[in-house]
Fold:
Amino acid sequence: MGTREATGTQSRTERADFQATADPALIEAADRTADIKLLTSEELYMLWERQQWQTQELDFTKDREDWHERISEEERFQRMYGLSSFFIGEQKVAEELGPIMRAAPTEDQRIFLCTQIADEARHVRFFERFYREVGVLEADGLTEMLEETSAHLNDNFSRLFDEMLKQRTDRLSTEPEDTEALVEAITLYHMVIEGMLALTGQHFIMDYNEREGTLPAFVEGFQNVARDEHRHVAFGSVFLRDKAREDERYKKAIQRTLEESLPVADGVLSPPWAKDVDADFELFGYSLEDTRKFAGTCLMRRLKVIGLQV
Structure:
């Protein structure tokens, strides 16, 4: 990764509140050993209580000035792919968590997943406030905002969320006792969508805005979103580690889901206006290769802790 990115990202991920989640991607020792202490569902719930935040406390006055006076029209257009992916992604995953929560085998797991549903709803409201108070779109209602901003997404985004994730959560809706389907859904949701795509995008977007001195309230809120998602991914890591140890077929379900979804997730990293998705390109000082490298490192650390060969 480039020097500029590494400095900002490293200082952020070393924050005590991020480290408190025990997300394996934040633990350098996971490069060398799988013997990493993970938090239980009950411990993650207690951490959720300690890490509360409110979207209504953010003041977007400076962000509105930056968006309309400091950021060019072309750059605003380029930024919209990342913003739209998060805004719509948060709304979609909030919808799909219910079947996963109901299918979780223990009460502690279900209680923690209820906190994640609340988190995802708060993330949607965070983006809604940013879009409305900064004046990003012409639409004003939440439904209308989501519809207008969806024009900035690519086909791989829809495949990942509307097909791959929804197929698995629909199956869990009718067969909540299908543990293999639950393992697939958590692999896709927590490891790929949140663990790779969301947290990677968040770190690069925050680093760029910090370097440029733009959108301070957005960065403050987005750091809270990222902390929430490290906590979610920590849950996915311990759940999948336990299931991989429990039965070989669950380990195979994790591997199968990764093999199917990773090529599609890689396509999500390229905005629709990138003419050649196979070619490297630079956006805001970071190349596609930088992004892939960061996402890959995070995934490999988590998989090693889960118990998969990498």
